[in-house]
Design goal:
The protein is α/β, with parallel strands linked by helices. It has a single domain (5-244), classed as NAD(P)-binding Rossmann-like Domain (Rossmann fold, 3-Layer(aba) Sandwich). It contains seven helices and seven strands, in the order βαβαβαβαβαβααβ. The chain has a seven-stranded parallel β-sheet, with helices on both faces. α5 (147-167) links the parallel β5 (130-134) and β6 (172-178). α3 runs parallel beside α4 (99-126) and α4 packs parallel to α5 (147-167). It is globular and about 55 Å long.
Length: 249
């Protein structure tokens, strides 16, 4: 049986990197489509694996996505799973948020998954594959000044169940909505800075701790497995129970 191939967008840092490392550990070939060249090159050097490839790609540019699909197939011969992880946030009061900033967030966070899914769909269908979208608990609840990010993730939530209807039964499509995941150390060297978490940070979570990238990576790997083929069109909240917690001041 041929070694399976997963594409992870924005896979050089944060949750994306955790997903990359999980799939590599499980014996998959992994390609990241990454816009941060510094982070991509650094990760390629650190991993030093023939099962890993880095492609420079801005997922909001259709021509770049189309080229990345073809390059991935030429490198590894197939695509079995697409993880739409790449995302940005610009959080500021709505009176100060420009239309250009709003559009930039939607271009990456929502147009990106649309374009990557569109151009991977045929290959994924041929291989009875899966799409895993990174949504967010901010699609369902918010802090102030997060309009662009929250709206984009609400779009990802809806895009997920829509794609599941359109691409099934050949392609399964699900999303993961992380809560607070500590990614402070999972960044390129110039940006990595382990955040000091307090006991209060951990204790406010019903699970007793802040999330780790492994929590999301394990869910992504679960959803990629063919034995879980009856799961599609769903969103999985991985937040230590916070969205179920009633909070009274």
């Amino acid at each position: 049986m041929k070694q399976k191939v997963v594409v992870v967008t924005g896979g050089a840092q944060g949750i994306g990197r955790g997903i990359v490392e999980k799939f590599l550990k499980e014996g998959w070939k992994v390609v990241i489509w990454e816009v941060d060249d510094e982070a991509g090159r650094e990760m390629k050097e650190q991993l030093n694996s023939t099962d890993f490839k880095y492609l420079l790609c801005n997922v909001s540019h259709e021509a770049a996505v189309r080229a990345a699909v073809q390059k991935t197939i030429s490198l590894f011969g197939r695509i079995d799973v697409l993880v739409n992880n790449a995302a940005v946030a610009i959080n500021k009061p709505i009176s100060q948020l420009s239309l250009e900033e709003w559009q930039h967030v939607l271009d990456i966070n929502l147009n990106g998954p649309f374009l990557c899914s569109k151009h991977c769909a045929d290959e994924l269908g041929k291989n009875k594959g899966a799409i895993i979208n990174l949504c967010s608990t901010r699609a369902f609840q918010s802090e102030p000044n997060t309009e662009a990010y929250s709206a984009s993730k609400g779009g990802v939530y809806a895009l997920t169940h829509s794609l599941a209807m359109s691409l099934g039964p050949d392609v399964r499509v699900n999303s993961i909505s992380p809560g607070w995941i500590d990614v402070s150390a999972m960044k390129k060297k110039s940006a990595a800075n382990q955040e000091e978490l307090t006991p209060e940070d951990h204790q406010q979570h019903p699970a007793g701790r802040v999330g780790k990238v492994e929590d999301i990576a394990n869910m992504a790997y679960f959803l990629a497995q063919p034995e879980n083929s009856f799961i599609t069109g769903q969103d999985f909240v991985v937040d230590g129970g916070m969205t179920r917690k009633m909070i009274y001041a």
